[in-house]
Each structure stands twice: as C-alpha cells, then as structure tokens.
Amino acid sequence: MKYTANGIELNVLERGRGDIALVFLHYFGGSSLEWQAVIDHLSDQYRCLAIDLRGCGDSEAPETGYSVDDMADDVAALLRELHIQQFVLIGHSMSGKVALALAAGTLNHGQPDGLNSLILVSPSPPVPEPIPDDERQKLLQGHGQRSSAEQTLKNITAAHVSKRIQEQIIQDDLRTSKQAWDAWLLAGSKENISDRMTSVVVPVHILAGTEDHALPPDVQTRLVLPYLKNATFDTVEGIGHLIPWEAPDTLVDFIQKKITGNSPK
C-alpha cells in the first residue's frame, strides 16, 4: 500500500490485525521486504506495518529531506495518518537511529503517543557511526553497481541464506536512490543525537549478531547502551548484520519475549 506522509508517498507492507501494531523499519540499503518472514509469524497476533523509508524500496525519492529527523518525522506522520494507537517500534541498523530519534521526540511531531517500547536490531548508535573512511568511500563510489552490492552482501551476512534471499538483498541495495544513499553516508550516519536520549523513556531492547562486522556487538556496549537509561542487550550466536534475513525465527522469539515478557510456546 502507498500512503502520503509529509507530502511524499511511502510504501508500506501491511498485514495482520490486533490492538498493538508492530512498526518495522529497515537497514541502510534495504527495504520493508526484509521483514516478510518475521511478519509471517507475527501477523496473526499483531497489526504489522513495514515501511520503506523515503528513497528506499518502493517509496518516493525526493531530492532532499534525508536527515535522521526527516525520516523519523515521516514515520510519525504515517502513524498519525493510519491512526495507530498503541505500537512497538522495531528498527534495524540505520533505522535504529531513526527509531531512537522518534522515541526522543522529533522536531515537528514531538514524542509519539502510544509508543510502548523499542526493539532495535543492530542499531546505528545515537553518536556518529564508526564507518571507516575507506569503507565509506567504497560505498559512495559503488552505488548502483551490482559488484559492489554483491560484496556488501558478503560483508554483512554470516549465516547461509537462500539464493532467492541473496538476490533480494542485492536488488534492494541497487534500487536505493542515490539521494538516500549519499545522504546517509555523508550526513545521517554522522549525526549526533545523543543529547536527546535522556528523553527516551520507554524500554529499549537490543539484539545483535556475534558475527556482525558492520556494527559489531561492542558498538552497542560502547556507543548505544551508555546513552539509554532503560535498555537490555542480547546477542545471537553465529549471525551477521542481517538478522531478519539470517535468523527470522530467532528474531520472532526475541520480539515476542520482549513484548509479552515470556517466551512463545
């Protein structure tokens, strides 16, 4: 489905129903499709909404407006448009930072009503993300090139995924707009919103793969957890950066446990 938020069209993968909505946000170079397997397990209990952020997936790609707050404002506007009353915000990598900005209160919408908790999968930290300069340049120069997307796939996965999933990861990388791509690498990833983290009052639950080389677990302990006053941190063995693709069942268990306080039966 396409919805208009902040004057642009955002694509939303929408399934299920329930009193609580699960709002899923994707990683840099990804799309809402990374959440399909997770949603398959959860849509019988919850209303599930996976959003393509501006310039990504099948959403519109305006020329400007790609700051962390711009993306958070888009999500806030969409939640208002859809009359979401109670929700859990689930952010992955880049959008973990977006989720933290939204929870702290965006510039245009303030703190969202009805936010119950944050579940963050290998989130980008509220301080500048530690991307080596040479890697940043490789990513900038490799935009839109299949060989670069294939190398990124190797760099950010550790567990085996099917050929079909591999191809989807590559295609999501290739269809990310240059505006969104460059803006994250040159600006968004470097933003420092750490001074706003004291405003994040809901519980925050973080999960990272032990073999994540894009945002290793120590990034969470050094650059994320110290800024949050109500957070938990867990790891999943042998998994890389793309937990929703690599270990969806483990992630479903984690989400259910953190929402209900109990492991699923």
Description:
One of its GO terms (cellular component) is membrane. This is Alpha/beta hydrolase. It holds the Pfam family Abhydrolase_1. GO terms for molecular function: hydrolase activity. Residues 21-137 form the AB hydrolase-1 domain. By secondary structure, this protein is α/β, with parallel strands linked by helices. The chain has one domain: 3-Layer(aba) Sandwich (Rossmann fold). Helices cover 37% and strands 18% of the residues. It contains 10 helices and 8 strands. An 8-stranded mixed sheet has the order 1-2-4-3-5-6-7-8, with helices on both faces. α1 (36-42) crosses α10 (248-260) and α5 (146-156) crosses α6. It is globular and about 45 Å long. The two termini are 32 Å apart.
What secondary-structure arrangement, pairings included, does this model have?
Blueprint: E1 2-5, E2 8-15, E3 21-25, H1 36-42, E4 47-51, H2 68-81, E5 87-92, H3 94-104, E6 115-121, H4 133-141, H5 146-156, H6 163-175, H7 178-186, E7 204-209, H8 217-223, E8 231-236, H9 243-246, H10 248-260
Parallel strand pairs: 3-4, 3-5, 5-6, 6-7, 7-8
Antiparallel strand pairs: 1-2, 2-4
Helicity range: 25-40%
Strand order of the largest sheet: 1-2-4-3-5-6-7-8
Rounded average pLDDT: 96
User: Tell me about the biggest sheet?
Assistant: 8 strands, mixed
Distinctive features:
265 residues, alpha/beta, Rossmann fold, 10 helices, 8 strands, AB_hydrolase_1, AB_hydrolase_sf, Alpha/beta hydrolase
